[in-house]
């Protein structure tokens, strides 16, 4: 008889566990033990570190900055990437996707920024910053409307743009591999190219042989090992680290007040469109991975965080920020879905940005070593774009033609750098960026072939084939 009441008590208590799943936090909103939070956040930093410091390492020398100034630019980029990541993960009001979403300096802006500031020194940086501020504020205003236009940016567009980003940056890696300075006596020497090849082999071997966290930081480890090998070769310069401070704050507008030029602003507005497209695709991918689908409000908040972070960034001498696709792969691999882990990574980035000596250590890496790793780094961006194009139904309609035309136009500045030499100088800022021109061509042709003038006789197929092609759900950058 005693068993019966005991059974009843258990039965009456049984419903209690049922509502608990609804009360339990979603994995995205869970906090982890401090040590795991830190190490998991550090892993995200390691996965993105090379990608954050690479753009300032390209832009700094191109505009004529010294090694010390370039190191300062790298520290500022780490600091502003941390701010943008915190805006994205923690958020406030209707700003932030509140997903484990990492933000950092966008590769999309590198080529246009080099075109804007080439050999102009501090003035070039000031013009770049002015253009970023205007483009970012415009993006912030457009965010609520842009998130409704996702259907006009299917994988055929995003894949083309991402592929062009990687392909456009590969010549930078080739230049680094030769030494970086075409006027130097050792430019293209067998020593430089051999060091680049050795670093490339090291990175590939580490990626193949290592597992888990170490595999994720294979590029970082490759840079370290390549630099150590380069010391006895005699191509490592310790000049930048000698003058670096242990602690420092990225002084607002260190290179002067922002300057505003129409052509530069137009170019960076196109880059902002590219960044917003990339971030939208990444949010859709990440939402699916963490089992919290990204709806319009999530995308709107994410785009606002992107654009607000980018608008704040020039104040602290940083560049335009957007999503880092490689960190989405890290979330998928580790199954750690907490946004607070990525927020911890954002905090680590801020601390690194406040330590100039940490940024200057990266300046120790010889350009040939960086070039060898850059081939993998930039090539992986192009590979992500190709992977996205694989989902773009190229056999349908004119999708293959869209890709062909956009990639062809986008490659003109790379394959024939003097192609637009007779055009007005203001237009060259846009035309000399294959990413910008390729993006415009892809968007316009996608609208022309897949959205305009085909409704009447295509109505029965719209629900199946054509609609599927326009749907942003085929996650792009993953």
Q: Can you describe what's shown?
A:
The chain has 478 residues and is an all-alpha fold. 68% of the residues lie in helices and 1% in strands. The chain contains 22 helices and 2 strands. Helix 8 runs antiparallel to helix 10, helix 12 crosses helix 13 and helix 12 runs parallel beside helix 14. The radius of gyration is 24 Å and the shape is globular.
Q: Report the structural category.
A: mainly alpha
Number of helices: 22
What overall form do the CA principal axes indicate? Answer: globular
Number of E strands? 2
The biggest beta sheet is recorded as: 2 strands, antiparallel
* N→C terminal distance: 61 Å
- Look at the structure and give the mean pLDDT: 81
Order of SSEs, N→C? HHHHEHHHHHHHHHEHHHHHHHHH
Order of neighbouring strands in the sheet with most strands: 1-2
Q: In which range does the helix fraction lie?
A: 55-70%
In brief:
The protein is mainly alpha-helical and 478 residues long. The chain has helices at 3-13, 20-23, 34-63, 67-89, 110-117, 121-146, 155-178, 190-209, 212-216, 218-233, 239-242, 262-289, 296-312, 325-334, 339-353, 356-362, 367-389, 399-410, 412-415, 425-431, 434-450, 455-470; strands spanning 103-105, 321-323. The chain is 68% helix and 1% strand.
């Amino acid at each position: 008889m005693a068993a019966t009441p005991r059974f009843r008590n258990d039965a009456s208590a049984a419903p209690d566990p049922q509502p608990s799943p609804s009360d339990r936090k979603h994995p995205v909103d869970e906090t982890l033990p401090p040590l795991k939070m830190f190490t998991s956040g550090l892993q995200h930093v390691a996965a993105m570190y090379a990608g954050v410091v690479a753009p300032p390492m390209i832009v700094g020398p191109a505009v004529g900055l010294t090694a010390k100034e370039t190191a300062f630019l790298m520290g500022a980029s780490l600091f502003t990437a941390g701010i943008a990541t915190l805006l994205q993960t923690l958020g406030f009001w209707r700003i932030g996707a509140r997903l484990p979403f990492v933000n950092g300096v966008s590769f999309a802006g590198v080529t246009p920024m080099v075109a804007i500031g080439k050999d102009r020194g501090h003035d070039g940086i000031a013009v770049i910053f002015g253009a970023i501020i205007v483009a970012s504020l415009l993006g912030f205003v457009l965010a609520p409307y842009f998130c409704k236009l996702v259907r006009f940016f299917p994988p055929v567009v995003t894949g083309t743009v991402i592929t062009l980003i990687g392909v456009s940056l590969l010549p930078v890696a080739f230049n680094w591999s030769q030494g970086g300075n075409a006027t130097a006596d050792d430019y293209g020497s067998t020593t430089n190219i051999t060091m680049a090849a050795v670093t490339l082999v090291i990175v590939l071997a580490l990626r193949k042989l290592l597992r888990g966290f170490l595999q994720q930081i294979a590029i970082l480890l490759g840079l370290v090992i390549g630099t150590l090998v380069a010391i006895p070769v005699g191509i490592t310069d310790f000049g930048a680290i000698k003058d670096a401070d242990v602690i420092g704050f990225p002084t607002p507008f260190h290179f002067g007040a922002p300057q505003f030029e129409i052509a530069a602003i137009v170019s960076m507005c196109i880059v902002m469109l590219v960044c917003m497209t990339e971030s939208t695709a990444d949010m859709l991918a990440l939402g699916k991975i963490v089992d919290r689908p990204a709806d319009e409000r999530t995308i709107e908040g994410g785009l606002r965080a992107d654009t607000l972070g980018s608008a704040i960034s020039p104040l602290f001498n940083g560049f335009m920020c957007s999503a880092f696709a490689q960190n989405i792969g890290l979330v998928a691999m580790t199954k750690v879905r907490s946004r607070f882990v990525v927020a911890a990574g954002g905090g680590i980035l801020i601390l690194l940005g406040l330590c100039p000596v940490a940024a200057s250590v990266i300046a120790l890496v010889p350009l040939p070593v960086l070039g060898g790793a850059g081939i993998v780094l930039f090539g992986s961006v192009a590979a992500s774009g190709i992977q996205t194009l694989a989902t773009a139904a190229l056999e349908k309609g004119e999708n293959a033609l869209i890709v062909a035309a956009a990639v062809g136009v986008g490659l003109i500045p790379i394959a024939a750098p003097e192609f637009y030499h007779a055009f007005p100088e203001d237009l060259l800022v846009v035309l000399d960026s294959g990413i910008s021109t390729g993006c415009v061509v892809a968007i316009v042709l996608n609208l022309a072939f897949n959205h305009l003038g085909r409704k009447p006789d295509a109505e029965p197929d719209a629900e199946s084939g054509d609609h599927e092609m326009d749907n942003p759900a085929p996650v792009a950058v993953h």
